[in-house]
Amino acid sequence: MFIFIFKRLLQLIPVMIGVTFVVFFIMQLVPGDPAVILAGEGASKETIEQLREQLGLNEPLFAQYLDYMKNILSGDFGVSLKNNQPVLDEIMTRLPITIELAFWSIVITVVIGMGAGIISAIKPYSFSDIGVMFVALIGISLPSFWFGLMLMYIFSVKLQILPVAGWDSWKHIILPALTLGAGGAAIVARMTRSSMLEVIRQDYVRTARAKGLQERVIIYKHALRNALIPVITVVGLQFGALLGGTVLTESVFAINGLGRLIVESIRMRDLPMVQGGVLIASIIFVLVNLLVDVLYRFFNKRIELN
What we know:
- By secondary structure, the chain is an all-alpha fold.
- The protein contains 13 helices and no strands.
């Protein structure tokens, strides 16, 4: 187990190098000059040129990238071009908000998704099964930003029972978490139903029923445990999707999290901040995938981790 975890952590190195490389060179394609943006429209050419020299923008791209990687390896994520603050400090200020939002969203995804999938699998092709799968199909099809705006319009504007935006109390969590978690819950529901139906048809389930075990015991102790492996995989992938979805959701609900910080930094062409934010999000995603692999072993002892 420890050898497996160590190997996976070593795999972080090429992944992170690839992430920084791709983000760095994609940002070069974004229109606009950071020096011009920082200096302002009325700045003189001399001022802009001085800024470019200070920021190292006159150096070749590969030289800029190598300098950035050297700083990363020493724990220095650079300084924001927007506010001249350390990138890592700014990210660590915003990151807890994004993690909290992603956590409650994944809770909604798991609880609603697995619950709906189990209900559908217990009585396949019944009215409840058709209804749940129809709602799940709608949930997969709806864009998250549109769904968030509709929730905001209904519960904040019309009913006035939840706040429109911000992140000050538990009431502020509900709408953004529902916005992020709804699509994932629909996917998990369909996967849970499919996996449960496959397991329920197995011989050992029929044997358990023949022995007179209660249906609840058969479903939750025997069938669900063996059906969880593909569901765990989907949940792990959904967590990565949630981290990406926070970019839109935090912008819609005016939440000062990591996603909104990345969006603001892209507009300002704040390359150090964008790279730092994407790098931290990528590390979290890889660590979540590692946790998913470990959970495979926890739920099924026959799985070997190599």
